Amino acid sequence: AQTVTQSQPEMSVQEAETVTLSCTYDTSENNYYLFWYKQPPSRQMILVIRQEAYKQQNATENRFSVNFQKAAKSFSLKISDSQLGDTAMYFCAFMKHDLNFNKFYFGSGTKLNVKP
Amino acid sequence: GAVVSQHPSRVICKSGTSVKIECRSLDFQATTMFWYRQFPKQSLMLMATSNEGSKATYEQGVEKDKFLINHASLTLSTLTVTSAHPEDSSFYICSVWGEDTQYFGPGTRLTVL
Hints:
The structure holds two protein chains of two kinds.
Chain A: E1 3-5, E2 10-14, E3 19-21, E4 24-26, E5 32-39, E6 46-52, E7 60-61, E8 64-69, E9 74-79, E10 88-96, E11 104-106, E12 110-115
Parallel strand pairs in A: 2-12
Antiparallel strand pairs in A: 1-4, 3-9, 5-6, 5-10, 7-8, 8-9, 10-11, 10-12
Chain B: E1 4-7, E2 10-13, E3 19-25, E4 32-38, E5 44-51, E6 57-58, E7 67-73, E8 76-81, E9 90-98, E10 101-104, E11 108-112
Parallel strand pairs in B: 2-11
Antiparallel strand pairs in B: 1-3, 3-8, 4-5, 4-9, 5-6, 7-8, 9-10, 9-11
């Protein structure tokens, strides 16, 4: 079974600074996807970034980047130049790549507070 | 990415009644949709996978007779909570599988009195 662990229930960062959210996972699969989703107070789940396991290059989306360490099964999210609008719950998710089975496994989440 | 809507956004019902929640994929034909449940300050818990034209696949511990799922078209899946009880009060979220990711609806807050 796949498990996803987010060991930081809550974090704070000053506006404009950089913060890193941790995520580890456990799987015996070799081909899979990893995601970070953001859930602001509105509770709408928003895709932040996606990483395919077969790609060695870390994914980047504007101020958001990941540090994907496949051997260590680690997938951390770095947010640069934090903005007040980044305040939200952040969920790490794992998905096994299979045409007939696209089930997501979510971590428990990290609540990020960006302080002015 | 896909745009997903849910209706209603909020619903309050009396104990013992049934409630239907709709999930629509507005710009994408979705053969697979997912239904999640989220309790306050917790992560999303997958309830079932909805497949167009076939029976839904329920996760272990989810009562299929209580949470009826219908995926009659490529753009619509419905979740019916039958004989709702206060413990069914929760936030229900649907998602659509497409383009190698899941796109989520805005959620439905169900309160059972």
